[in-house]
Structures are given as C-alpha cells and as structure tokens.
Amino acid sequence: EVQLSESGGDLVQPGGSLRLSCAASGFTLGNYWMGWVRQAPGKGLEWVANIHPSGSGDYYVDSVKGRFTVSRDNTKNSLFLQMNSLRDSDTATYYCVRGGGGADYWGQGTLVTVSS
Amino acid sequence: DAVMTQSPLSLPVSLGQPASISCRSSQSLVKSDGNTDLSWFQQRPGQSPRRLIYQVSNRDSGVPDRFSGSGSGTDFTLKISRVEAEDVAVYYCMQYTHWPHTFGQGTKVDIK
Q: What's the DSSP call for residue A9?
C-alpha cells in the first residue's frame, strides 16, 4: 500500500527556517517524480515544487523560488522541503504528493505556521 | 501561468440528482504528444485531496463510475451522475501540462 507521511511542520517566526520531511512506503521512490503542494487555511491548493526521480532537476513556483529547496534521498525513501526566509504568506498545510503532476497519492499534510 | 477558472464555486445539489462542474484554462492543455494533462481532485472536509480523474477522462481505481470527466483544449467538465451524501466535498481541477502546475479555485458541493 502506497503511503506518504509528512513531518516537520511547526510554528516559526517570519524570516525563520524549517525543514519538512516526507517518508514514502509501498513503492520505489526512485521511480517517481515527487512534489509538494500547499493549502493555506481555508483556501485552495497551490503546487509549490517538483523534483525529478533522480534528484537531477527541481522546479519551483515563483513565490518560493530562491527560498525553498526540494531534495530527496531515494535510499532512505524520503523527500524533503527546506524552507528559508519564511513569510506570513507561507502559512499552510504542506502535502507531499507522488508524481510530478499526476499527484495520484497524497500524504496527510503537515501544518506550517509563520507568525511572530 | 495557466489560470484555471472553475464554475460554479458553490453547488447545492439534491441527493440523487446530477452535478456538473466546469473548468476552463487560459491556455491550451494539449501537449506535443497529443495528451492533455488535466486532473480532478476531491477534498472531503478535514481530509487530504484525492485524485478522481487524470488526463481528462481516466477514472482512478476505486472511484465510483458516477464520476466522469470530459473536455478538450481549454474547456473541461466533471460530472456526478447521481450525487450521494459522501460526495459532499470541494472539487478542484488541476493542469499539469505547463509549469507551474495550477489548480482551479475549487467548487464546494453540498446537499440541498
């Protein structure tokens, strides 16, 4: 059974940093593009970042470019999102998704709150 | 960016009645290989989104056949043939032909 489990969400001050993790199981991580999608409280969905199966390429929405970095460790079945220079507008539940666009499986999400 | 526009944003439906949600893209979603990367997702209250449909009209495993997707180019539709209580949710279309992948605003379906 495919499972994705995010962790690392927390309350952080504006300008701070946070690293999210996603533990994958039930499939071979290295065979899939992976992504992060976020949802601000009571709002819609926004695709944030994608990463190639080998980690050789990554893509970001303009609002996080230069501040967020997606990475992966296929040997440890893990996906990461390093978030720096956090802003109030980054407050959201962050979902790990399988597939660069296919998004056929989603994790339960982890809440990031940016507030002073 | 490809802007995805859904309508209506709120859809009250009686049990057993059909429902239809429109999704329009500001750009063609047809790729050079002829495929169209447009998906529909269901997000029930308090849950993560769940994919229902991919590449316009392909239903995911386990999705009831009362859900169907259609359309081409820039205009797409999700139909529920007979709404059941478990279909109360917000539905999103998403294009993944172009980067960044973009979602519609969401359509809230509830029971009238």
A: -
Q: What does the alpha-carbon distance between residue A87 and residue A112 come to, in Å, rounded to a whole number? A: 11
A39-80 pLDDT, tens digit each: 999 999 999 999 999 999 999 999 999 999 999 999 999 999
Instruction: Give chain B's contact residues with A (Cβ, < 8 Å).
Output: 37, 39, 41, 48-51, 54, 60, 92, 94, 96-97, 99-106
Report the alpha-carbon distance of residue B83 to residue B16 in Å, rounded.
5
Give the separation between CA B40 and CA B94, rounded to whole angstroms.
Answer: 6
Helix (H, G, I), strand (E, B) or coil at A27: coil
Residue in A closest to B59 by C-alpha: A104
Q: Tell me if chain B has a CB within 8 Å of the CB of A100.
A: yes
Q: How far apart are CA A116 and CA A44, in angstroms?
A: 24
B2 closest CA partner among B87, B73, B86: B73
CA angle B54, B88, B109 (to 5 degrees): 80
pLDDT digits (tens, 9 = 90+) for A2-52: 999 999 999 999 999 999 999 999 999 999 999 999 999 999 999 999 999
Helix and strand counts by DSSP (H, E) for chain A: 0, 11
